Amino acid sequence: MQLPAQQVAVLEAASADEATSVDALADEADLPPETVTGAAFELESEGLVAVEERVDETITLTEEGAEYADERLPEIRLYEAALEAGADEDPTQMGQVIGASGLEGGQVDIALSNYARKGYGTIESGEITADPDADPTADAEANALEALAESGEAAADSVDVDAETIDQLERRGLLERTETTVREVTLTELGVTELMAGIETAETVGQVTPELLTSGEWETVEFADYNVEADAEAVESGTVHVLRQMSERVKDVLVGMGFQEMDGPHVDADFWINDCLFMPQDHPARTHWDRFAMEEPSHIDELPEELVEDVERVHREGLGEDSEGYHSPWDEDFARALALRGHTTSLSTRYLSGEEIGEIEPPARFFSVEKAYRNDTLDATHLLEFYQIEGWVMAEDLSVRDLMGTFEEFYAQFGIEDIQFKPHYNPYTEPSFELFGTHPTTGELIEIGNSGIFREEMLEPLGVDCDVMAWGLALERLAMLTTGAEDIRDLHGTLADLEFLRNAEVTY
Q1: C-alpha of 364 from chain center
Q2: DSSP code of 350?
Q3: Beta partners for 365?
Q4: By three-state DSSP, how is residue 94 classified?
Q5: What are the pLDDT digits (tens) for 32-52?
Q6: DSSP one-letter code for 158
């Protein structure tokens, strides 16, 4: 019997008594593992060996998991601090306990979110209690982290931790699971028989070369057989991100509708972000809970003096007989405070005021597809940073009918024709309404944008004396409607689903 050299080497290295892994055969035969794998499958097709596959799962702690294994979970540290503060007897101020625990940054949120879940106590109205009967030494997650820290990388089936705890730690990002396909080879009776009878090494050629063609040897040499059913190495190529595809498509559509693109700073003064929008300075959305303020530099150096005076006047006094303003404090120092823009409407105020490119004459259409930043609670439709499709049209005698018609034309370009509108309130538009679309997978209505006609109290200080209709649409929500993604975190961020991003098709 004649076989190619690599097949002979694998056959001679294999055993009939025990299964041998591909890696072990590769070491014994001094061949690359992928060559051994191909040869093994070819030998299997001849009935000379049997190839078995299994998937081994290993578990390792992440950097954060290793840190908690060493320093204790944040919720346990919070519980211990609460006990020391006497929260097992009387409710204690939460800030006092957090300060005593030594927790900082994101660890505070982690501790608070797991504290009550595990029965360590309650958190209500800024006060914390501690259950004196709670037992941190029985915390399944803490004990699992400790065990994994001692064992290092471990096979999943060798870890004495229940599956539910493993799943919870993985959801918290404290451990990682890795799956590896292991192939093992065993000689069959036929393989043993042929080895005993003697196997010759066949001189075969694996590929056609220019030398074979020019010399004419290709007519007489024996070519190796190819097993087209053998596994091949997966090659992941780069691709344009789903949101980048969607962003470029949106820009193409809006330019085709006659719009020009805007750009501007991601960090801007509250004046441009909110004050110019007739947003009162004591509005809840302007607190540190909802915005990302800058520490250094903390304030902008220059603002247009006349515009600042006009904006402050309208905030304090209103505009015309039917407008009274807000009768609330207005502080220029607060207006100068720098923050990451919570919406890209700061670009619109810069352009409408003439500060960015000079005075704009109607009719005019402008848009941007840029990033905005908000201190939102993360969920299936919210992230801390996201892309907003900003747009506005300046013209005489605009109406809600014009605005709704613009949306219907825009979304029709993406095959979305079931847009629904709901009246809404904004400090800077009147009338205002939100837009909703039907998710193609879940069938649920999801909010995809906010819009309205800019109020006169906003436009007059900016020097605009005609109608302006405007909107802020969510790029990620549009991508959810066109790709079927059910969670915004699948699209980008630390939890992005790479498999989904590799295979998702943007349809329009």
Answers
A1: 35
A2: H
A3: 393
A4: helix
A5: 988 899 889 989 988 999 999
A6: G
